[in-house]
Amino acid sequence: MRQLVIGLMLLISITAQASDADRLKQAGFPAQVEGLALKNQAVLNYLWADVYAAALYGPKDLSAKQAWEQQKSLRLTLYYFRDIDRGDVIKAATATLERQQTNPRLKPEIDKLHARFRDIRSGDRYALDFRPGRGLNLEINGQVVFSSSDDALARAYLGIWLAPEGLSDELHDKLLD
Q1: Alpha-carbon distance 156 to 135, whole Å?
Q2: Read out DSSP for 43-65?
Q3: Rounded Cα distance, 121 and 119, in Å
Q4: Which of 58, 60, 132, 136 has a beta carbon 3.0–4.6 Å from 67's, enabling a disulfide?
Q5: CATH number of 33-176
């Protein structure tokens, strides 16, 4: 019986890995974008459902972790597999930022960023593009919908995925590996 359970667990694990590979292929992340190279990609699963695929881009000569730690240019792209109400996205982001003890000074800018969100539809692509000195752009389906020159806002908001105590430890680890 124990061997059967172990075999089923391995089969589920292999199937899940194949599913993630298929999902990443579906997301179609390019190897380079806007002068940055694809560093890592992963699928966020919640309650056995694929929510989105994430791709992290950074300078060619640095690892993803080095780019994050050294506050270099980064681009995080999310390709959504499901419809999600904007209120749910804002609620999850706010809870994560509070858990990470984000500087309260950033709240007005975070509120402006959240005001630009819309209900997410399957196939939508959101991107957070950070360039030191220029700040942060939020893109929805290739259109810049929000910009801020505040590098601290960029660090805090990208931290939802890349800093400790973020949305998902597993996603964090895969993106910064």
Answers
A1: 12
A2: EEEETTEEEEEEEEEE-TTS-HH
A3: 7
A4: 58
A5: 3.50.70.10
The residues near 97 (Cβ < 8 Å, ≥ 6 apart) are 110, 156, 157, 159, 160
The domain spans of the chain are 33-176
- Please give the structure tokens belonging to residue 15: 């199937």
The first and second tokens of residue 64, run together, are 């993803």
Nearby residues of 141 by Cβ (< 8 Å), 6 or more positions away? 124, 125
- The pair phi, psi for residue 10, each rounded to 5°, is -65, -40
Q: Got the DSSP string for 80-140?
A: ESS-B-HHHHHHHHHHHHHHTT--GGGHHHHHHHHHT---B-TT-EEEEEEETTTEEEEEE
> pLDDT tens digits, residue range 40-90?
999 998 877 899 999 999 999 999 999 999 999 999 999 999 999 999 999
| Dihedral (CA of 38, 160, 46, 51) sign | negative
Region of 35 please: left (phi>0), alpha (psi -120 to 50) or beta.
left
| Least confident piece of the model among 16-20, 35-39, 119-123, 164-168 | 16-20
